[in-house]
Design a protein that fits this description.
The protein is mainly α. Helix content is 76%, strand content 0%. Helix 3 crosses helix 4, helix 3 runs antiparallel to helix 5 and helix 5 packs across helix 6.
Length: 147
């Protein structure tokens, strides 16, 4: 007797399998170092538990990395990185907004640039860097036929 699965279930299984493979390209040490490079000054202004701030930042970094790796297929087939970034911009903006809201909740409002938008710009740069890292790693995997 055959097991009947839906298309959504099958697609989700393939996505999870791909994500597990891609996660081999990212180390916890590197995630932590980059998080501290970006948000170390912010930890000083955290009024609550720093561990929660760290977990949120690491979670968004992993999501951005996976998003970049997911869209790397287009780069492998010849599309420019900037065009692929525009293609994934909506999802990237969601990650930036989520990180910004999360950090705004867990920290005080002291961490601002003179223009007033320092935290949002920092979140944008953080997500963009991890997206780029994932994009390049995924493109390399496609090139090596590992995906």
């Amino acid at each position: 007797m055959t097991v009947i699965t839906t298309f959504k279930e099958r697609r989700r299984e393939k996505e999870m399998k791909y994500e597990r493979k891609v996660m081999s390209g990212i180390s916890l040490e590197k995630l932590y170092k980059e998080m501290m490079r970006y948000f170390q000054p912010l930890m000083f202004y955290s009024t609550k538990n720093n561990r929660s701030v760290e977990e949120g930042c690491l979670d968004i970094a992993v999501e951005a990395f996976l998003l970049g790796a997911k869209y790397s297929r287009f780069g492998y087939y010849g599309e420019q990185e900037e065009k692929v970034r525009v293609r994934s911009e909506r999802d990237g903006k969601k990650l930036v907004s989520a990180l910004f809201d999360y950090l705004s909740f867990w920290t005080e409002d002291h961490y601002e640039l003179p223009t007033g938008d320092g935290l949002y710009m920092l979140c944008e740069a953080y997500v963009d860097d991890w997206w780029t890292e994932g994009f390049r790693f995924g493109k390399k995997r496609y090139g090596l036929k590992l995906s």
